Amino acid sequence: MAEKVLTMEDDWGAKGAQATGAQVQKFIKDNFKSLQDKYATQQAQIDTLSNKQLEANPQLQAATDGCFVTYHRKSDNWPLAVPYWKWAALEQAGEVADGVLVLIDGQAPIIVSPTGTQLKWSKNAIAVNADTGSDYNKAYVDYSGKTRTAAIMAKGVELFGEEEENWTQYAPAWCNAYSRTYDKGDGTMIGIGAGKWWLPSIAELITIWKHKYAINLCLSVISGASPLAESWHWSSTEHSATDAWNLYLGDGNLYYWNTKVAYSYYVRAVAAFH
Question: Given 55, 81, 199, 249, which is the most exposed site by the fewest CB atoms within 10 A?
Fold first, then answer.
């Protein structure tokens, strides 16, 4: 005789129709799996609909225009960038974000690191390249954070001391040592590693301030990322041996007379998109 198949309509405890423990367990498992499968299908349909709506939403596209989650594709280490609403599926598939790509009119794009810190600028009052001085007009167009950071690192002993392992206690060296690389499992390193990141210049920081809401939106979908703090941020643009330029991300306030060796400000590393 075929085993009775239980249904929700059955009176499992009725005389002569008692269900065995095994039958009840099988019924619960089968129905639970059915609910799981149905939920997964509906969630996939919702995600697809949401992505289509986001793609077709010009207001949202305008709000996030020029900012994307960027990553090096795990299969071949190729740099790519996607709108923030596409990132969750890629991360779930095993991709790791480099950070947030920001397009800049007339300049090479930059990638903003997913995380930051608070540090002093240097241990000693040394001027590496104080060509900007207190000239705001020069500061506003200084996109040379990469070359400035390289020059700063070349004078590392003078700025940060003899012990190289301590250099990352200071903003430029911390940025230079920043890394988003990982081993994909066969010894191949994926992502942007140490030596490829730099302390942004003032113009690069102003670009970050300009796009801070879109950047934070992108950062919000990256696992382990932290939002930009609406506070003072160091730049690699120097005023003098004692002072460096910094920007307040809350209101765009720009200063050049804050002391490198005395003040701890926020630091975000940036990198090139390639």
Answer: 55
- Say if residue 46 is in the same domain as residue 73: no
In this structure, are 70 and 7 located in the same domain? Answer: no
Output the CA–CA distances (angstroms, integers) from residue 42 to 33, 48, 49, 91, 182, in the order listed: 14, 10, 10, 20, 34
109 within domain boundaries: yes
66 falls in which pLDDT band (50, 70, 90)?
confident
Q: What is the pLDDT of residues 119-170, one digit of tens each?
A: 999 999 999 999 999 999 999 999 999 999 999 999 999 999 999 999 999 9
Averaged over 83-103, what is the pLDDT? 96
DSSP 6: P
Verdict on whether the full-model pTM lies above 0.70: yes
Q: Is residue 110 part of a domain?
A: yes
Structure-block tokens of residue 25: 């367990």
| pLDDT at residue 46, rounded to an integer | 45
Residues present in the chain in total: 274
Residues 217, 64: contact at Cβ < 8 Å? yes
Question: Which secondary structure element, helix H or strand E, spans residue 218, and what is its range?
Answer: helix 212-219
CA distance 160 to 178: 17
Burial 47-85 (b: 16+ CB within 10 A, else e): eeeeeeeeeeeeebeeebebbbbbbbebeeeebebbbbb
